[in-house]
Amino acid sequence: MAIASGGRSGAAFRYLAVAAWASVAVALGLIFFVAREAVDAMGGQLQRIFYVHVPAAWVAYIAFAIVFIASIAYLRTGARRWDLLAHASAELGVVFCSLVLITGPIWARPVWGTWWQWDARLTSALVLWLTYVGYLLLRGLATDPRRVGRLAAVLGIVGFVDVPIVHFSVLWWRTLHPSGPAVGNASGGSTLGAPELVAFFSALVAFTLLFAWLLAVRVRLGGLADRVTELEIAHEMRAGAPVAAGSRSPRPGEVAGATTGASPHLAER
Amino acid sequence: MSDIAWLFVAFAVVWVAIGGYLLTIGSRQRRLEARLRDLDARSGRDPHGRSASP
């Protein structure tokens, strides 16, 4: 797939893409042909949903951790690249968190007999998803990206507080959600056999590589959008036509109403 | 619905969602690249940023 594959780092993108999709293929093979069917109490065949549900949650945690770190870096330095990274990672975090919130109920419906329970794990995960959907809406509706970059960074930092709450909710409160990591039980041993552990960790690696590739692609897309905005502003200045407020939709990295110079926001990169 | 059907739905949702996201990114990239080519052409530069004027 020729997504954002040009430029000097094009080869690295392609290698990462090949590694990601190859590991996905290996993980799917292991999940369906190596991992054994779970006992009925865990849902039998349905337990295989766990091999995509947990890695998707893991990747969402990584994505929101990157938003947290990049947001702190952006507030400290004001460098646009951190803002781009935070935005890209938040978008991917929402995608993978959505997968968690969809695959969970698909498992729960036949096993629990209900799609949803307002228990601690499910509710805190929904709050996490809503927080970062709000983050993306805030950025999407912004007319002043410099100001919204700071506001979004604060939201990205505060929102991350929910990640440990989601993770430890099964230990802190009584929940219907299976408690603790499935790779270990209370006595420290694994509840999974060797084939299942191999399938599980291969799925974790596959989702992590897929996320890394998607993040690289998405960050490059943000850089491309900034370059377009820069050229649009330069073109309008050269043409001598002041940019009328509201005449052109603001784009990432653009300072609203900028008519007198290249965006300082972009110059910070 | 059988367990296998639920399993199929779950895996289908995951890969359709990831595929859909990739298509969205690809579409955004193509739109931006077209806009970039248009702006470069209007400012008399080639896509690599070199000025066409002597």
Care to describe what's here?
The complex is a heterodimer of chains A (269) and B (54). By secondary structure, chain A is mostly helical. Chain A is built from eight helices and no strands. With 54 residues, chain B is mostly helical. Chain B contains one helix and no strands. Chain B is rod-shaped and about 60 Å long. The N and C termini of chain B lie far apart (71 Å). The relative contact order of chain B is 0.07. Classes of the chains: A mainly alpha (269), B mainly alpha (54). The interface between A and B is medium-sized, with 35 and 26 residues.
Structural class of chain A: mainly alpha
| Global Rg of chain A | 22 Å
Order of helices and strands of chain B: H
Q: What general form of chain A does the structure show?
A: globular
Low-confidence stretches of chain B: 50-54
Number of helices of chain A: 8
Q: In which range does the helix fraction of chain B lie?
A: over 70%
* SSE class of chain B: mainly alpha
Name the chain pair whose interface involves the most residues. Answer: A-B, 35 and 26 residues
Strand segment count of chain B: 0
Mean pLDDT of chain A: 83
Q: Main β-sheet of chain A, in a few words?
A: none
Main sheet of chain B, how many strands, which sense, barrel? Answer: none
Number of strands of chain A: 0
Shape of chain B: rod-shaped
Q: How widely separated are the two ends of chain B?
A: 71 Å
Helical fraction of chain A equals: 55-70%
Rg of Cα set of chain B: 21 Å
Give the number of helices of chain B.
Answer: 1
**What is the residue-averaged pLDDT of chain B?**
83
